[in-house]
Design a protein that fits this description.
4 strands, transport, mainly alpha, 461 residues, Azg-like, two-stranded antiparallel ribbon
């Protein structure tokens, strides 16, 4: 087996030992085989953590509006991120972090609880059931089958779209791009001279320079430097302490093990469970594929290294989320910040998981990293992911253009699944009209049909 094939498989080559690889840590995570170093992985893990730590504030806040105890949800959010990321790192050995998905959190709070009047225990039962069904679909190979039948154009288009989506999320979080208050296009330029906008743009430019000079940990350095600046000069960034004992809520308010599974089996709730499952299948699967592609963790057939374990890790994490009182889990797009910082192995995700465990006791620290400190990193990653455009085969215009439709509508609709659905639809119809229907396989046609029915039926989130 050649060195190159060893790298692609992510498995140690014959004869690899602790002596050769340098340490048990190196050997366990295949750090040398994947062209990384322990230091690089630690920096990548810290970078990913800082890019997604906002979730411990956003998720409790969203669920709190629906009546969840925010202290209990804070603990649950940390536990879900720790469990999922450690599972991904130690078992799947990939640099992808898992946490409570923001989109699915919104659906749980505003559609299930507030919209349909579902009680909190039943909502958590729905999250638990969603995780069970999601895991069943994963271990039976259905998700892997979907990945296998993902046309190259749409696979790369998903990466492009997620990059644009990430760019929009980051720009909106600091007010660089805002909702247009007047008639016309939906978004417009925000207050260009505001501190968050200026610091974000300065940080983005600084990352360009540091990465060009190949400064190790350049992205992390920018996040830390801007956070320190904010602590000194921004009155909105305040030191609120370092240590805080975790609280699961007052007596009777803990969410651990409170899910009502039987209540979630009510015919009124089941459609919501299926909507969560369908959204997670294509949203999370597309994200995993995009992050793996960016980190060059694909085998010679374009499939994700240890893909089955990666897919199982995020589905099992949703079962855990329902049990501890959190929202459905998924691989975070922000994982790409860590892979951009050099993360290539499961050590990156393991670091993220460990830091979220510590976060249970260090909750005040989350207030020291303002949005404009992490926005430059996310915008940079979004721009990097646009390089997938070069991977589109313009000689096969139907495939390439379908991929571009997928990319553009991910960002225009702010929904990954919508972009994938439109991309599949254009591919199938385009192949038929162009007379290239023989290039279609049954899997692609079936996926397209299921997605169209899912949207036409009004079940999409």
């Amino acid at each position: 087996m050649s060195d190159n094939s060893t790298l692609q498989s992510g498995q140690p080559s014959e004869g690899t030992s602790d002596t050769v690889s340098g340490s048990k840590l190196d050997s366990y995570f295949y750090i040398t085989e994947r062209g990384s170093s322990v230091r690089q992985e630690l920096v990548a893990g810290l970078t990913t953590f800082l890019a997604m730590v906002y979730s411990v504030i956003v998720v409790p806040s969203m669920l709190g509006v629906a009546g969840f105890n925010q202290g209990a949800v804070f603990i649950a959010t940390c536990l879900v991120a720790a469990f999922g990321s450690l599972l991904m790192g130690l078992w799947a050995k990939l640099p992808m972090a898992i946490g409570c998905a923001i989109s699915l959190t919104a659906f749980t709070a505003f559609s299930l609880v507030l919209g349909q009047g579902v009680s909190i225990p039943v909502a958590l039962g729905a999250v638990f059931l969603m995780g069970v069904v999601f895991t069943g679909i994963t271990v039976t190979g259905v998700r892997q089958w979907i990945l296998t039948n993902l046309p190259f154009g749409i696979a790369h288009g998903t990466g492009i779209g997620i990059g644009l989506f990430l760019l929009l999320i980051a720009a909106n979080s600091v007010g660089l791009v805002i909702k247009n208050p007047f008639d016309g296009l939906p978004v417009t330029l925000g207050e260009f001279t505001s501190l968050p906008v200026l610091m974000s743009l300065l940080g983005l430019a600084a990352i360009f320079g540091l990465e060009r000079r190949r400064v190790p940990g350049g992205i992390l350095l920018v996040i830390v430097a801007i956070s320190v600046f904010g602590l000194i000069f921004d009155p909105n960034v305040t030191y609120q302490g370092l240590f805080a004992m975790p609280s699961f809520g007052a007596e009777g308010e803990s969410l651990l093990g409170t899910m009502d599974i039987m209540g979630a089996l009510n015919p009124i709730v089941i459609p919501s469970v299926l909507a969560l499952v369908m959204t997670a299948i294509f949203d999370a699967t597309g994200t995993i594929r995009a992050v793996a592609g960016q980190a060059n963790l694909l085998d010679k057939d374009g499939q994700i290294i240890n893909g089955g374990k990666a897919l199982t890790s995020d589905s099992v994490s949703s079962i855990f989320a329902g049990f501890v009182g959190g929202a459905p889990a998924a691989v975070y797009i922000e994982s790409a910040a860590g892979t951009a910082a050099g993360g290539k192995t499961g050590l990156t995700a393991t670091v993220v998981g460990g830091l979220f465990l510590l976060m249970i006791f260090l909750s005040p620290v989350s207030y020291l990293v303002p949005a404009y400190a992490t926005a430059p990193a996310l915008m940079y990653v979004g721009l990097l992911m646009l390089s997938n455009v070069t991977k589109l085969d313009m000689n096969d215009s139907v495939d390439a253009m379908s991929g571009m439709v997928c990319a553009v509508f991910i960002v225009l609709t702010c929904n990954i699944v919508t972009g994938i659905m439109l991309g599949f639809s254009c591919l199938v119809i385009g192949r038929v009209i162009s007379g290239e229907w023989k290039r279609l396989n049954i899997g692609t046609v079936l996926i397209a049909a299921v997605l169209v029915v899912f949207y036409a039926g009004g079940w999409a989130i």
